[in-house]
Write a structure and sequence with these properties.
Blueprint (H helix, E strand, L loop, with lengths): L7 H27 L3 H27 L23 H24 L4 H27 L22 H4 L12 H27 L3 H27 L22 H25 L3 H27 L12 H10 L1
Length: about 325
Amino acid sequence: MDKPILTASEIGMLWTQYIQNSMTNQILKYFKLTVEDNDIKFLVEKSLTLIENVKSNIQSVFRSELLPIPYAFSDADINLHAPKLFTDDLILLFIETMGKAGTTAYSLAQATSTRSDIRGLFSTVLVEYSTLLNKTIEVSLEKGLYVRPPSITKPDEVEFIEGKAYFSSGLNPFHKRSLNAVEILHLFENLKTNSIGKVICTGFAQTTDNKEIKNYFLKGKETSEKHAQLFHKLLTESNVPAPVPSDVGVTDSTTRVFSDKLMLFLKSVLSATGQGNYSTASTASMRYDLIGHYQKLSIEVALYAKDGFDILLKNNWLEEPPQSVDRNQLIKKGTQS
């Protein structure tokens, strides 16, 4: 029995994951050569195997469906002879972030796919990413490197919201309602991801010789730092401990590791993830001041991401996703002939 043709959703997910896996594959190959801790190296190797298998499986789908395989990224985008740029702690945090992103992405991919073989592919990868994330957190806990979310006092009983002041109290600088657990969750996670983003931008700015791109990453570093400081402030205002990753950083190497194309693309992925995180946090927050902050920061990230896309476009580094047929153009073309 012939398989149904792939839906636009399936093609879009397969294409997106192939591009991102191709990029991550190059990054992990470099990490494998520079990581020093054996336990973290095991996680890097496990991640690399997972990425390579997913990439190979998607290639097989593309070939069987007669779809063009994206150029994506190759060994030309990495200098495997470069000295160590990021610390082992950052590498561990990168894999943790990769695990979180993977479980989110492949959960959506599975939910939006129709064909059984494509659902099966995404389901398998989702389980593998979940396993990787769990193992990464276990290693981080064992080494005392895992940054735990803040704790709060457990409530004694169920309480109900009384009046609109619960939502608007954050607008009063002299009497702000303390943060609830859901708000703390999002503030902490966004603080953590911006702390990582700051480090990555620092390393990229340190190793590119393109002035425009260097300035772009320096701006990203400043933006991440500003956002992290705001989240830290909002947590401490409610007397909530706001831990940040320690001893996570960049070495003093200035040798280029990654191509400008790869670095810009990774930053575009991180920016898109950041916008998604802020959108989720905005809808989950119940204090108007938090909602306002997230909406404002989302605009800042969107404008910053646009600058990055402009550079990618100018250098012809952006591949076009598979497109639907432009019927109007076909009709116009047919009329002319």
